[in-house]
């Protein structure tokens, strides 16, 4: 579903991403971990079309991507951001937030789709006409996920989607993402600094350091400590708890 070959991203003279290559199968969850500034979110932004200044080759479902993306691309590929409060317009109700992508893509049955979207992320109908500041952090992130699903995408790009939430709510959102992937056959790329979160959701993991993808390994190998690159071993050792929390 996703193919990236020799991706470079530069900001002025700084190479933020250096010749990164990986592929993600249809229906797979692929994680990218690394320290702050390692380039992991920059990869996601280039793939999503938010950063058009890149070189290399990227494709979705066999179709090569240009720096500027079409409306069809944005229907097929959606992104969920780290801060649900910052990613939701503070003066728009949940109803407006969910209906807007449907209107942009010319989709019908808006009322039915909104109610189905709320139900899929386990939000009651009562939140429909509330504003983001009237919701909890977990509810806001559920709205952000519902909004991303409105256009019926094939790919979700997840940029630290649980890092702004407390541990118990993190578990709820992660389990929701697992359920949604199974229900819709979605392909995920998850970026996170939290190894336990990535190991819970993703089958394969890429480790980034200083803009380079230094290792690709399975979640099972990461848990067992079967790592090859010293930076991966270091990240694992620094992880407070690699094993999945009991609440997950």
Describe the model.
Helix content is 38%, strand content 25%. The protein has helices at residues 40-48, 71-76, 84-87, 94-104, 110-120, 137-149, 167-184, 195-201, 219-224, 230-238, and strands spanning 2-11, 14-24, 29-33, 54-60, 63-64, 77-80, 155-159, 187-192, 204-209, 212-218. The chain contains 10 helices and 10 strands. The strands form 2 sheets. The protein has a 6-stranded mixed sheet, with helices on both faces. Strand 9 and strand 10 form a beta hairpin. It is α/β, with parallel strands linked by helices.
**What's the total number of strands?**
10
Helix-strand sequence: EEEHEEHEHHHHEHEHEEHH
Q: How much is the average pLDDT?
A: 91
Number of helices: 10
Beta-strand content: 25-35%
Number of domains: 1
What is the CATH superfamily?
P-loop containing nucleotide triphosphate hydrolases
């Amino acid at each position: 579903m996703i193919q990236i070959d020799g991706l470079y991203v530069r900001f002025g003279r700084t190479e933020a991403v250096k010749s990164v290559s990986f592929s993600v199968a249809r229906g797979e969850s692929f994680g990218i971990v690394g320290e702050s500034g390692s380039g992991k979110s920059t990869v996601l932004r280039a793939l999503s079309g938010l950063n058009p200044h890149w070189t290399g080759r990227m494709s979705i479902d066999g179709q090569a991507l240009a720096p500027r993306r079409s409306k069809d691309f944005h229907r097929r590929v959606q992104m969920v951001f780290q801060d649900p409060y910052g990613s939701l317009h503070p003066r728009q109700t949940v109803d407006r937030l969910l209906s807007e992508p449907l209107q942009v893509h010319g989709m019908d049955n808006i009322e039915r789709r909104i109610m189905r979207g709320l139900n899929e992320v386990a939000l009651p109908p009562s939140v429909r006409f509330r504003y983001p500041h009237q919701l909890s952090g977990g509810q806001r992130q559920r709205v952000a996920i519902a909004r991303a699903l409105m256009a019926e995408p094939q790919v979700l790009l997840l940029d630290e989607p649980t890092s702004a939430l407390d541990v118990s709510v993190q578990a709820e959102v992660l389990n929701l993402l697992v359920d949604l992937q199974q229900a819709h056959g979605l392909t995920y790329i998850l970026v996170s600094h939290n190894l336990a979160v990535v190991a819970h959701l993703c089958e394969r993991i890429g480790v980034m350091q200083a803009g380079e993808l230094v290792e690709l390994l399975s979640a099972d190998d990461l848990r067992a400590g079967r790592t090859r690159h010293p930076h991966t071993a270091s990240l694992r050792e620094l992880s407070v708890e690699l094993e999945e929390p009991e609440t997950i």
